[in-house]
């Protein structure tokens, strides 16, 4: 879900929020995810995963600006989602 937020993909966010709620994640954790560094709701392992995810998106977004071949790997997101091809450029 964090990557979908960074990619600004409404389609993927809709899917991941639904999945998170079905997996009994609290609404509070979902809502504060963009500010995960400022809360104690996430474990050290989750924080490490979030750091890695943000770093990967940041790296690939920067690489995408200089090369048309840098893309995030295909995810389980439907191919109709714009971010299934990789991060969006601003």
TrEMBL record:
Residue ranges of every copy of the Carboxymuconolactone decarboxylase-like domain listed in the record: 3-54
Top-rank taxon: Bacteria
Family matches, as SUPFAM superfamilies: AhpD-like
InterPro entries assigned to the protein according to its UniProt record, in alphabetical order: AhpD-like, AhpD_core, CMD-like
Stretches for region Disordered: 67-90
Name recorded for this polypeptide: AhpD family alkylhydroperoxidase
Species per Swiss-Prot/TrEMBL record: Streptomyces rishiriensis
């Amino acid at each position: 879900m964090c990557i979908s937020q960074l990619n600004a993909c409404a389609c993927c966010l809709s899917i991941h929020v639904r999945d998170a709620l079905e997996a009994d994640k609290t609404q509070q954790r979902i809502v504060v995810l963009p500010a995960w560094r400022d809360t104690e709701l996430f474990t050290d392992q989750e924080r490490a995963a979030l750091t890695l995810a943000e770093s990967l998106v940041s790296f690939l977004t920067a690489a995408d600006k200089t090369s048309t071949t840098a893309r995030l790997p295909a995810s389980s997101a439907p191919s109709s989602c714009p971010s299934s091809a990789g991060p969006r450029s601003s």
